[in-house]
Amino acid sequence: MSDPIRTVTTVVIGAGQSGLAMSRCLTQRSIDHVVLERGDVAHTWRTERWDSLRLLTPNWQSRLPDFSYTGDDPDGYRTMPEVVDFFASYAKTIAAPVQTGTTVTSVRHDGEQFLIRTDVGEWRCRTVVLASGACNIACVPAFVNRVPQAIANITAQEYRNPGQLAEGGVLVVGASASGTQIAYEIQRSGHQVILSVGEHIRAPRMYRGKDLEWWMDVAGILDQRFDEVDDIRRARKVPSLQLAGTPDRSTLDLNALTAIGVRLVGRLAGITNDGKAQFAGSLRNMCALSDLKMGRLLDLIDEWATNNDFACSVAPSERLPATRVAGAPPLGMDLRRGEIKTIVWATGYRPDYSWLELPVFDRKGIVRHHGGIVDYPGVYLMGAPFLRRRKSALIDGVGDDARDLSNHLVLALADNEATKRTYPAPA
Hints:
Layout: E1 6-7, E2 10-13, H1 17-28, E3 33-36, H2 43-47, E4 63-64, E5 67-68, H3 80-93, E6 98-99, E7 104-109, E8 114-118, E9 121-125, E10 127-130, E11 137-138, E12 152-155, E13 169-173, H4 177-188, E14 193-196, E15 206-207, E16 210-211, H5 212-218, H6 232-235, H7 254-259, E17 263-265, E18 268-271, E19 276-279, H8 283-307, E20 332-334, E21 340-345, E22 349-350, E23 369-370, E24 373-374, E25 379-381, H9 395-414, H10 416-420
Parallel strand pairs: 1-9, 2-3, 2-10, 3-6, 10-25, 12-21, 13-14, 13-21, 14-17
Antiparallel strand pairs: 4-5, 7-8, 8-9, 11-22, 15-16, 18-19, 19-20, 23-24
Helix pairs in contact: 1-9
């Protein structure tokens, strides 16, 4: 006998920081809801991060609705087990109605309500919150199938520690936060690492005696809204800062990597049918542009410090030396020679909405939305980069987004015209 279809006002899909923050805001607004999670609370943090990873943001910046850090190390950076414990404690504290071990297989609309199918039953609801995360599937270029069979391919999502790698050289593709940290760890373990560098943003961990995140927080940079930028599509594609949450609060940039022996090459442009890697000749320009972006960010911080009487109470302004680039970085490499035994693809992620059967995607497969309000009545998005604010993808950013979107959701439910309008016919 099949399970009965259960009815609730709102279904939240995903029990990470975004889903839990939205759950808290819905509870505060007396909206009955359920949070469906394929694994346990914070599933992605538990299963898809490397062993030594720490948060890029300091502990004090882990602020969720009615919940924040209360320990004795506010300026430290959490390990992954500590992150999982933090979210598990939050879910318990707010009594979030999470149904774990529940994989959503389909989200449709029947003309009256949404029908949510899962591997353990079905739900009907009036509104849906997509909080399943922006980093479900690792993005790997199509030419990965031209990598010689003798070379192992793993993604940053699959990487755990250097012990899983074969003896020999490692090519790390991607130089944002994940790529630089993985390259650093692998090089220090005894492998020779070659880092393929594309677009990236260099940043000092500490600036004028304060954590860079502290400056970005107090100066309001992280609070910049999606409707205050000229090109939000471009802003949502900006790489993560080259930051690492280390106990010594050191800066991890390309200079730190080359200082321990990592070799730099340009962006991996392709691999030929006979296994030859082709690197772009733009490495020097990429690094110069990254230095320029860093300088603009620090100039903005300096301006804020001066205008708000902070300049005299913090350390003097300073700049890191320019990124060092070898005179003639190689433009190619024959992967069949045996120098490289493993390629680690730190080339980003994309969300998985294969179960979303609604006409909400643009021609590139991206969910159409305006600050998290999806282009389909009753559907909301959480956790995407620069969703409503520059900090939307941070733990510290989901609370403000959840408050805004839950307010909109409540008003939409109260508006008879909005809740009774004719929906697009299901496909």
